[in-house]
Amino acid sequence: MVERSAIIPVRIQLNLLRGGTDVRFKKVFVSLFLLLLTASFAYSQDKTTGGIKGKVRVETGSPGGIKVSIRQGERELTSVTTDKGGDFTVSRLPPGVYGLTFRKPGLSIGTMESIEVKAGKVRSIGDRLFLSIDEGSLAFVRGSVFNAADRSVPNAKVELLKVDSDGSTKKIDSRLTTETGSFSFRLAPDVAKYRVQVKINGTEISREVEIDGAAIYRVALTFAPPAKP
Questions:
Q1: What is the pLDDT of residues 182-223, one digit of tens each?
Q2: In contact, 198 and 223? CB cutoff 8 Å
Q3: 114's torsion region: left (phi>0), alpha (psi -120 to 50) or beta?
């Protein structure tokens, strides 16, 4: 009697475990069925809409972070942002004709018109759009290099360094002067201090320039005549 009573609870426990497994299996099956049904419905919905994709090129800097506004007439419907390579994709657009506007600080504004979108298709505009620099939103450091005789110095290497608040410097850019001894650097209009320096025949001279907005900042670098013995 003792042995039989000990076996019965074990059988009941096994049946309960099997029942729990069946319930869990049914739940997983139902969840998968609903997931496939939802995906199928979404796919069928996408067939009724279209999209636009393309690539934006820029004159200088990164093509990432450009805002692409999708509009009909002057009314903006939605917007996306280009990735670091300048690529963008706009999805779920009803069939129709759209215009695109491209904006990023420091760059000119670009537009494209009469882009037709068809249901179930993604319209590619390729990489036809090119954004040049908006010079009105930049700061320029321009100047000339002169020798001790007050003549312009061509092909002199001019370096631009950013001066931090602690006095340390970091090289930003460099270039050679033109045949007339001139040079030009384009910078963001943010408030900052820069140092322009040039070195010729072991002699170095520099000037500091403080940027406080979009404007042209001019500097002249003149080598002093050699000291008399």
A1: 999 988 888 999 999 999 888 999 999 999 988 999 999 999
A2: no
A3: left
166-184 pLDDT per residue, tens = 999 999 999 999 999 999 9
What's the one-letter identity of residue 160? L
The domain at 50-131 falls in which architecture? Sandwich (2.60)
Q: What is the mean pLDDT of residues 138-164?
A: 94
Q: Which residue has the tokens 């001139």?
A: 182
- Which of 178, 123, 129, 130 has the alpha carbon at shortest distance from 154? 178
Residue 67: count other Cβ atoms within 10 Å of its Cβ.
Answer: 14
Using alpha carbons, select from 182, 186, 137 the residue that is nearest to residue 160: 186
Residue with token string 């695109």: 100
Closest Cα partner for 172 from 146, 209, 221, 123?
Answer: 209
Architecture of the domain delimited by 139-222: Sandwich (2.60)
Q: Do domains 50-131 and 139-222 have the same CATH topology?
A: yes
DSSP class per residue in 121-187: -EEE-TT-EEE-B-GGGSEEEEEEEE-TTS-B-TT-EEEEEEEPTTS-EEEEEEEE--TTSEEEEEE
Q: For residues 109 and 100, what is the distance between their CA atoms, to the nearest angstrom? A: 11
CA of 139: how far to CAs of 66, 187, 188, 210, 227, in Å? 20, 5, 6, 11, 37
Q: Sketch the domain layout of the chain as residue ranges.
A: 50-131, 139-222
Given a cut of 50, whether residue 120 has pLDDT beyond it is: yes
CB 153 within 8 A of CB 177: yes
